[in-house]
Write a structure and sequence with these properties.
This protein is mainly β. About 0% of the residues lie in helices and about 50% in strands. A 7-stranded mixed beta sheet has the order 6-8-10-15-16-12-13, with no helix packed on it. Strands 7-9-11-14-17 form a 5-stranded mixed beta sheet, with no helix packed on it. Strands 3-4-5 form a 3-stranded antiparallel beta sheet, with no helix packed on it. About 25% of the residues are buried. The N terminus is likely disordered.
């Protein structure tokens, strides 16, 4: 990229980096490219007028995963021969996560759990077999992609209001995804 005028203002502005670009000539359409720690894969790119052109918020998960608030917006592809637990962070308004089965569970279930067993997970399951799925509207702690019933493509999405995790799940058969409360 060739920039005729680039003024980078670094300072303590509410922990933000302020970049002011004027009279820019874009080569490839991006003002800013940010790369992963290898320097080869673009994590996100910013184009004209601050539009985010690409943001890679995906992770293939093959073992126990303790999710952080910094991962909000991520899509987790559940892919393992031995299933595991994914633990949501403490509730913070605006966080959201998606879980997609890419290897059907066999031998055990994939589970998504709250961080403190506080019955703050609420949601519904919609299935393509036309049968009403499991619903939890009073609060629970665990969503399971059930061993022997969940299939590739089953998914669940969670959004947080600062207190509760609201989930919407989609599966092939109504028994593929369940909500439960810690005992």
């Amino acid at each position: 990229e060739t920039l005729s005028t680039l003024a980078v203002l670094l300072g303590y502005y509410a922990d933000a980096l302020n970049i002011d670009i004027t009279e820019a000539t874009l080569n490839g359409g991006n003002y800013i490219n940010c790369y992963d720690d290898t320097g080869t894969a673009s994590v996100f790119s910013v184009g004209e007028n601050g539009a985010v052109l690409f943001s890679d918020l995906t992770e293939v998960v093959t073992s126990t995963n303790v999710i952080t608030a910094a991962e909000s917006g991520s899509v987790f592809f559940l892919n393992s021969g031995t299933e595991f637990v994914s633990t949501l962070p403490a509730p913070i308004a605006g966080m959201h996560f998606t879980f997609i089965v890419t290897a059907a569970p066999s031998g055990a279930s994939y589970t998504v759990v709250t961080n403190a067993s506080a019955n703050v997970m609420l949601g519904t399951v919609h299935s393509s077999d036309g049968v009403d799925g499991d619903s939890e509207l009073t609060g629970c702690d665990t969503l399971s992609f059930v061993d022997g019933a969940a299939v590739v493509g089953d998914r669940a999405e969670f959004w947080c209001d600062g207190t509760n995790w609201f989930g919407v799940a989609h599966c092939n058969v109504s028994t593929g995804i369940t909500y439960t409360t810690a005992t």
